[in-house]
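Researcher: Here's the sequence for the chain we discussed earlier.
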Amino acid sequence: MSALLEVRGVSKVFPIGGVLSGRQMRAVDDVSFSVGEAGPEIFTIIGESGSGKTTLARMILGLEHPTSGDIIFEGQPVTHPNRALRLKFMGKVQPVFQNPFEAFNPLKRVDGYLASTARQFLGLRDAASIDAAMDGALQKVGLSLAEVKGRYPHELSGGQLQRVAIARALIPNPSLLIADEPVSMVDASLRMAIVNLLRDLRDNFGVCVIYITHDLATAYYISDRLVIMQRGLIVEMGVARQILDAPQHPYSRLLKASVLSPETFGGAALAPPPDLDASSLATSASPAGALVVQADGRAVRLPSS
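Model: Thanks. This is the structure I predict for it:
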């Protein structure tokens, strides 16, 4: 079975201080992985702010173009020379963003977004068919059209609005959902409901999910496989629980230790645990280092010698 999505040696470089300065920032550096090769899965990308995970997601969505490398979806490059091909791709690869209140215009009723999506991607025109498509998608996320019709974003809770955002993404019947920090703006009591919804989409509707997060707890709960990114590089990749139970790369160990440490909770920077040599972090993610497959099947970036 071929992979649904292949990311092959993708890098993204941004100029710093203007094009004429000659300075550059490598936001994503030679990243490769595949999604959906063995069937529907939740593939998680973990990293701190600035690790390159959101830039990578934007390239998969076609919102940014790689500086080098290729992104292949269903055997075709994610580059579309005309609007028809772009629209077809957008129907199969749908995003769910971090803040649902920013995804909806506060002056527009939420069902208007759902109806617009049904018209654009499904080509529906009559009101009954549009209502049926909207209600079907809302039912998948535990809501109904009757609950949201005619309501504005501020009339829904954050959890309800995020579920509406997921329902909107489901209307075109996508093969791949890219969820960028989808629970970070939702109350803690509602996070598991959203996380369980992503699992349900995988298990019952055959949707692959790329779950982007810095939250190791939810990643451990729902992920099939994952990558951990630091400064644009993949530093560890493999089966999710295998990595999170016993991380090997120093940065992966740092992430896990920091999650468990009350001293670093809420801090602006991660602090190494006492048994971890902090100096190793400076070199362990060097571009000269290579991802090496270990005996247990995971890939770990070794420090350059």
